[in-house]
User: What shape does this take?
Amino acid sequence: MNFTNFPRKQFLQGATPLEAMPNLSKALGGRVNLYIKRDDLLPGAAGGNKTRKLEFSFGEALSLGADTIITCGAVQSNHARLTASWAAKENLECHLILEERVKGSYKPNASGNNLLFHLLGVKSIRVVPGGSNMMAEMEKTAEDLKKQGKKPYIVPGGASNPVGALGYVASVSEILQQLNSMQLKIDSYVVPSGSAGTHAGTVVGMFGENGNIPVIGINVSRPKDVQEDIVYNLANATAKLLNLKTELPKGNIECFADYFAPGYSLPNDGMVEAVKLFSKHEAILLDPVYSGKAAAGLIDLVRKGHFKEGSSILFLHTGGSPVLYAYLDSLL
Ligand SMILES: *Cc1c(COP(=O)(O)O)cnc(C)c1O
Assistant: This one.
């Protein structure tokens, strides 16, 4: 696919590794072969999926002459950390609005990403209650900054608008190139589904590139139907931005919602087991909010026999490991 119509700031330094997980495959009974796409190893302080999206968000911001970036996220947001990281690299001011989705969860002295916000030189952090209109809050900050003579650019939560989702559309040709050169046939691709840019972009890329690999999203915060609609709408808007000629089939969007209880960012047993299994068997660090819960979904689907015997499954590691250090009580 052609992305040259869109301003893009190159943050990637080549393809992220696509590796086998033979130890974990064996530990889960050896019925299927598990592989992992290491987007946790993308550049940007401590890595993670948002870097792919931010290539396009920052591309647009810089093309508009912005000198200041505003974004939002949860109190331990990886997206906020990576936005702050690329703002630091590009000499832009960064302002964060953090949503306290779980009451009392904002701790000004917390470890994990909270520490990193400060190290990365974030200019301001404003905490708002769960359920706030985050776009309205960011616009408020933008107005204040404009009055001070700044040129702010707003990156929406998770960079999950059509511009940001382009990063995951583009990831698909990278993956297909790797699979072709490894001569590896993948039967299912499992990705976390949160603010949905990763899932939606991947589905559009798979469709546009004729990749023919079904994509499975594991929800981290919303019921199945609600999330599938969000992914579908964003995927369609992204396809439209790319001028795709054929309509994306709704059946290409599939979400599983059984793995995030009791709620977004709240620990559960499946997440704890997944974090421990990935580290013990593959020396891969997941996170408690996204990749740990998505991996819990992967593990359960493998155990339940959801995938045909002998099939090969690819899992997208979206990063987030700094958040492990804010969850000591659940993981030790
Ligand atoms: C943001 C994030 C996700 C979810 O990606 P979306 O595009 O928001 O759906 C998954 N894993 C990690 C570590 C994240 O930070």
